[in-house]
Amino acid sequence: MPEALPARRTGAGPAVPPPPRRPSAWTGFVGTLGEVLRNRQLVMIVVVAVLFYAFYYPAPYSHQTAQQLPVVVADEDDTPATRAFIAALGATREVAVVATVRSFAEARRLVQGRQADGIVLLPRGLARGVLAGEHGAGIGVWVNGAYLTRASGIGAAVKAVVIDQVLQRLASLREAVHGELPIDIVVRPLFNPQEGYANYVFPAVAIIILQQTLMFGAAMLAAQRRAQGRLGLGAGHLAGSLGALVLLGTAAAAFMFGWAFWVEHMPRQLHFGRLAVVTPLFALAAAALGTALGSHCRSPDQAMMWLAPTSVPLFFLSGASWPLAQMPAAVSALSHLSPATLGIHLFVPINQMGATLADVAPRLGQLAALAVAYTGWAAWRCARADWLQNR
User: Fold this and answer.
1) pTM of the predicted structure, to 2 decimals
2) How far apart are CA 46 and CA 50, in angstroms?
3) Is 154 exposed, middle or buried (0-12, 13-18, 19+ CB in 10 A)?
């Protein structure tokens, strides 16, 4: 322990005690780690929540694609060709034919009664029209649009069965005329090999989870320090405190992108050098934002109350569910204030698409600017801690 400075005397007056020594960055680093790990509430949010959501969120989508979706077939043609189509459709993994009716109106009543999610209409004269090559002859599909993944699954199943039936007819025709089948077109997804919903959504949601857990923890820590009069301990202490939070955030990201993605079979390309640049920067932006926001709160519970409702809006603003380019300009600009928005457009290209740092350089620069701005905000709030205590 360093020796205390001797009291300074001014003339014949009493001794003036020296100003208190500010905690160092190392003291802030070690103290913050200990403070987080000793606080059950902070451990649950910063550590346990990451472990929980890493496996809880993808669990409902373990099948990746919707299966055995109930549909009703309105077979107005009632020919051997349409009956063969219905049998083939019922044999697919995606669709379960729950009823075959003779009119579209009857099929619609079943969907409205929630007995099916879609209607496949085989109109009158379908087989004759297809064989004759009549314009407009085809199959109609109506799907309950409230479930986008179900709609996609039913549409894909109908399309696959139609193509299979057409190829079978062409095969019979080829044998009759000794011809050749047309060239097959093979479509292979590049970044989502299973074409699964979990593979699409979880890599983006993982970034939201990493930001929210770290931001919540930093905000609650700052609010707790404000309530205890320990918020303004100097620039060194703040730097060490942010360093500890960045370490925790980086460890959480390493677990998420490494172990959790491997267990959940997420598409991944672990480029450690690129992640080593992006991950601490992302963690710093989230931790600094949380510290700044928490400095406005009088208690940890108030910080949690304010921030908990932000998770869902931040996901919709991130560009994962709707392209940023299709949003109004003001909304798109607002979305870039969240580190998760930039994080998704950095981590997903690097992890899933093999992008280099040069490929994502503009986003990386924006994230660095965000980290600097939020660190400055947090430093300003902590520097005014004495004033905050008297508010």
Assistant:
1) 0.71
2) 7
3) buried
